[in-house]
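thoughts on my protein:
***
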Amino acid sequence: MSSPTLLNRLTFRQLQVFQAVHQQRSYSRAAEQLGLTQPAVSAQIRQLEQALGQPLFKYAGKTLHVLPTADTLALSTREIFGQLSRLQM
């Protein structure tokens, strides 16, 4: 049996949450924007990081630092959601 592909390990919701955290640079502000709790946002990011096999963000004190992998993923998620919005015409 083959291992699941990346597409089978992540969800659009995880990508939405990721996109909000990346834009807001804050789990709490992303949670507020999405109408979620901060622990729910944290759990989604943790699951996404597990699916990708690498961290996306790092805290130093109270400051959230965006790692290079997150910037790369942000470009892809913008493209994905842009394509989806064009399909809704």
